[in-house]
Amino acid sequence: MSGVTKLGEGYGKSENEIPIDIALTKMLDWLIDRKKAPLTWKKELASVQTKIDAAKAELPDTPEIKQFLKDKNLTYFDCEKILDLLKDANESQSKTLFGQYTSKRMKDWTDIMKAYQQNNIFLAEAAHTLTTLVSYDLPQLQKKLNALNKQQAELSKKEEDSKRNVTSFHNRLLKEMEDYDLTVINRDPAVSPWGDEDLRQAVQAYSRSQLPTIFESITQCAQNPDLMSAIEFYTAFLRFTQLPGSDEPTQEVLPTARYIAQNGNVSLKTFQGIPDEPAEIPSTQEPAIKPTPIASPPQPLKSSIEVDWTVIDDSPAANKEPPKEIKDIPITESTIDWDIVIPEEDKVTDIVWDDDIPSLDYGSIEVVEISSAGVEKLPDQVETFLSDTPTRNLFLDDIIELKNFLNQRKEELQAKDNSILDPLQDAPAIIKEENFKLVNQYSALVEKIYSLLTGQNFKKLLEIKNSQRYVDRIVGGLHHLRGCIDRSFSGGKYAADKTIEIQDQAKATMPEIAEMKTRIADLRKNIENALSDQFSGRPVHITGDVPK
């Protein structure tokens, strides 16, 4: 057996050299089970803490002692350090014959230390304090720091999103403003909001400035000779393709398209045959206008219609005698006597119309509204053939009809088979001379006019011109974008301010965590040393997630 070697923990070591491992979560129970601390340690500790509270009021006001009294309960090891500080402060120089301190402070704190050491109360308190710090206080601070860091990350993301939204809404606002030529009002969204009336006037002014340009483009295309040629070609085709024996069309083909091709974008009054006359605005200094005398009084009316004046009554009394019918009563001046007596002094024997005042033509007077501020509003722009909705729609209908016809003729010409007898061989020369290239040329011009009349920008300008509600919707959209910018900017500013506040809280929490870890490490070391003394110098290790 001499060749057998024993292996195992502790082999070759004395008992005093074998370490004692104590789990942190079971350390207090471990002390009580091994009679190293009494079961009633809390009751005895309360009396000790009462002495500590009374002795703290007598401590000298020095920086070294203040750091032990700040925001924490004193433990046995703190009291031990305070007693050492008092000794260094010459509090322990005078003693009695029996070796007791004459200084009240030294005496009080010495008694406190003895009360702690009795029944090892200090060990139970230290174990309980260490468990509380490691299991609750330190995780709480770390959880708080993690929450602050998470909140800081969310606020940083919110701030970036707000900046991105401000840029997006700002660009959209600038685009809307450029679309309506509003950059002259305000290009910077950080300036105070605009007035609604200013925006309305600016939008309407933009419409008034852009519509004449589009009208001019449409007019130039309409007065292109190719349009008139296309209209004549379509007219000849319609008349040629009529059924035999049918009457020749009495109505003019595409009348509105033909009119604008010949006359251009004339005023609406000219189109209607009404001569354009300048509006006359009466001066406020002129005397009141008296009515022009009527040439002859109206003739009395005679009724030629038989009126049945029968009154139907369902009551019993009404059924006794049938109602009488009144028919053919001529209406004359002397038929009705109203029995009105006019005093002699109030009768008007003659009316003087003051013939010196020339009669006025009321049709030539244009009513001019006057605002409450006393400023006269200018008359609206003169309506033209294209600015008037009904006439413009008639022109558009003609263009659509002509466009569809030309598109159909192009398809027919492309699919034309020369082997089949041409049905248009007896057609007029204007139809025989047609070819795909010519019809395609006509179609391109008509398509261009159609695109000008139906373009989105043109429709938008017409809506602005004709609809106040549409203008209000545009102004509301601009204010909505402005509000989005303001809200996004405020949200970003709040996130930035809150981020700074969270950063300050995180910076204040980190030293607390570091200080608590230092306190836990010191307390752990002191407990291990104290327990080692209890077990004749055997090394003691407190296991668990305890900072060292």
Give a brief description:
The protein has 548 residues and is mainly α.
Description:
- The protein is mainly alpha-helical.
- Helices cover 55% and strands 1% of the residues.
- It has helices spanning 27-33, 41-56, 63-69, 76-88, 104-117, 121-179, 196-222, 225-240, 255-263, 268-271, 389-414, 429-432, 436-454, 456-466, 468-534; strands spanning 20-23, 540-543.
- It has a two-stranded parallel ribbon.
- Helix 7 (196-222) crosses helix 15 (468-534) and helix 11 packs antiparallel against helix 13.
Principal-axes geometry comes out as rod-shaped
Total of helices: 15
Order of helices and strands: EHHHHHHHHHHHHHHHE
Roughly what is the average pLDDT, rounded to an integer?
A: 75
Termini separation comes to: 45 Å
- How big is the Rg? 54 Å
**Order of strands in the sheet with the most strands?**
1-2
The number of E-state strands comes to: 2
**Beta-strand content bin:** under 5%
The share of residues in helices is: 40-55%
Taking the sheet with the most strands, its summary is: 2 strands, parallel
Sheet/helix structural class: mainly alpha
Low-confidence stretches: 1-5, 186-193, 278-343, 345-380
Keywords for this structure?
mainly alpha; two-stranded parallel ribbon; disordered N terminus; 548 residues; rod-shaped; 2 strands; 55% helix
Topology at a glance:
Elements: E1 20-23, H1 27-33, H2 41-56, H3 63-69, H4 76-88, H5 104-117, H6 121-179, H7 196-222, H8 225-240, H9 255-263, H10 268-271, H11 389-414, H12 429-432, H13 436-454, H14 456-466, H15 468-534, E2 540-543
Parallel strand pairs: 1-2
